[in-house]
């Protein structure tokens, strides 16, 4: 029996797609570097169907690629070698909710915003948030340990996963941690699957933790003189009030938002960099403390101007200056690098990276923004209109070793939150030792002995 016939038997024909439009759509993610070429797209609706597929794939020696919202930026969901793409679009239900445990059991195709809305309807809060929350899926978030804009206060996706049900590459079903808060019984395999980029098996259920809804979130946008001053502002505010976000973007980035999108500047004064600070105002003293921190920063000459939101709508408008950057610059086919170092090293690191960039990208427009409150910087080079995409990416990639060598020397990461996928697997050595990579490959072989699950990613 051929593979397509077996797929039709497992999923029924309407949940097996082989038309060219579907293959092209589901065979890629947000990266524009690789040409997708999958064999078929399948849509499971249960753990049992996923297990049957994995067993068939092992017998036939065919590779499987997990597909969520396909918002990844490193090619982790790309299928270009006749793999079967496993889309979780139809496993998109919230299965259970426990108000005492503050836990919710979700299928992997649940959209991030769907979980956020469900939490809010139950007077709770799911804090992991980012620009693609309206399309990214929970299974993909877990597989990349997604971070986003509130890491300063709430941490990464890993912090909110209480339990997982998975199908390994060997076809075994594992129920990991059972939603427990405390469980000191040996190795916690749940954490191996978080951030594994779908290389060990498929997540088919996730038990997620919720928390209290923050009260009266307020946003401050400040114009800052330079990166060292930005870090002084961060320290001042962090020592004064509890922050839920501390983001930054450059004047070049803001100008693009103003000119291309027609967004209003936060204030008339231009500054080299801008800090966006979010905090909870649950009593009047919090607002007073924030204003005192602003005045202290202004007196030191670190801040040239600032505005604090006076309404929920104004807070949303100020957030758009940061959250809509990625969508805005996508029209310019940006070459992205997602980098991180210890927060205290950010000024030195950014200076050294800029030196490497300027030596090689003098004719290109370079934009900086990111989650500076957790040491995560996004470096974006915009493609000139006159240059072909392939030539542009080739030129940009030539400087990667210089950037990553700086990263290695400062004990940073070549991928803070986007993963490794295909695009960065040749650069893994800059953040992981040879011994670590070998151990990771050994772990994959235990869970996926025949190497059928998302092959060619990470390693």
From TrEMBL:
It holds the Pfam family FAD-oxidase_C. Keywords: FAD, Flavoprotein, Oxidoreductase. One of its GO terms (molecular function) is FAD binding. The lineage of its organism: Bacteria, Pseudomonadati, Pseudomonadota, Gammaproteobacteria, Thiotrichales. This is Glycolate oxidase subunit GlcD. Residues 34-213 form the FAD-binding PCMH-type domain. Its cofactor is FAD. It comes from Cocleimonas flava. It comes from the Bacteria. InterPro entries: FAD-bd_oxidored_4_C (IPR004113), FAD-bd_PCMH (IPR016166), FAD-bd_PCMH-like_sf (IPR036318), FAD-bd_PCMH_sub1 (IPR016167), FAD-bd_PCMH_sub2 (IPR016169), FAD-linked_Oxase-like_C (IPR016164), FAD-oxidored/transferase_4 (IPR051264), Oxid_FAD_bind_N (IPR006094). Belongs to the FAD-binding oxidoreductase/transferase type 4 family.
């Amino acid at each position: 029996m051929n593979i397509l016939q077996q797929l039709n038997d497992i999923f029924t024909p309407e949940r097996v797609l082989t038309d060219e439009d579907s293959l092209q759509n589901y065979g890629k993610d947000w990266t524009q570097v690789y040409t997708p070429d999958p064999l078929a797209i399948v849509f499971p609706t249960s753990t049992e169907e996923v297990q049957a597929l994995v067993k068939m794939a092992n017998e036939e020696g065919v590779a499987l690629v997990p597909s969520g919202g396909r918002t990844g930026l490193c090619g982790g969901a790309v299928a270009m070698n006749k793999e079967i793409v496993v889309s979780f679009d139809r496993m998109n239900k919230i299965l259970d909710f426990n108000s005492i445990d503050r836990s919710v059991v979700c299928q992997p195709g649940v959209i991030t915003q769907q979980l956020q809305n469900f939490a809010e309807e139950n007077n709770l809060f799911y804090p992991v948030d980012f620009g693609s929350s309206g399309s990214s899926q929970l299974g993909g978030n877990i597989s990349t340990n997604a971070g986003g804009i509130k890491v300063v206060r709430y941490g990464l996706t890993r912090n909110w996963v209480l339990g997982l049900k998975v199908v390994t590459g060997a076809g075994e079903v594992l129920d990991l941690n059972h939603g427990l808060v405390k469980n000191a019984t040996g190795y916690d395999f749940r954490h191996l699957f978080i951030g594994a980029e779908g290389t060990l098996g498929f997540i088919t259920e996730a038990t997620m933790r919720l928390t209290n809804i923050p009260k009266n979130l307020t946003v401050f946008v400040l114009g800052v003189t330079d990166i060292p001053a930005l870090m002084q502002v961060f320290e001042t505010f962090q020592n004064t009030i509890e922050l839920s976000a501390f983001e930054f973007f450059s004047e070049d980035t803001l100008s693009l938002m103003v000119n291309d999108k027609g967004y209003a500047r936060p204030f008339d004064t231009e500054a080299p960099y801008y800090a966006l600070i979010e905090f909870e105002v649950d009593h009047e003293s919090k607002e007073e403390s924030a204003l005192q921190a602003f005045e202290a920063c202004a007196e030191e000459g670190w801040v040239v101007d600032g505005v604090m939101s006076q309404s929920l709508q104004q807070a949303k408008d100020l957030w758009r200056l940061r959250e809509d950057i990625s969508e805005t610059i996508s029209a310019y086919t940006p070459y992205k690098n997602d980098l991180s170092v210890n927060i205290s090293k950010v000024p030195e690191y950014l200076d050294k990276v800029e030196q490497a960039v300027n030596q090689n990208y003098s004719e290109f427009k370079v934009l900086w923004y990111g989650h500076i409150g957790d040491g995560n910087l996004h470096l974006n080079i915009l493609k000139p209109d006159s240059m072909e995409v392939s030539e542009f990416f080739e030129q940009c990639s030539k400087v990667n070793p210089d950037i990553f060598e700086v990263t290695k020397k400062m004990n940073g990461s070549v991928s803070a939150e986007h993963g490794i996928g295909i695009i960065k697997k040749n650069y893994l050595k800059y953040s992981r030792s040879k011994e670590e990579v070998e151990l990771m490959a050994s772990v994959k072989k235990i869970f996926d002995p025949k190497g059928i699950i998302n092959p060619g990613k990470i390693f």
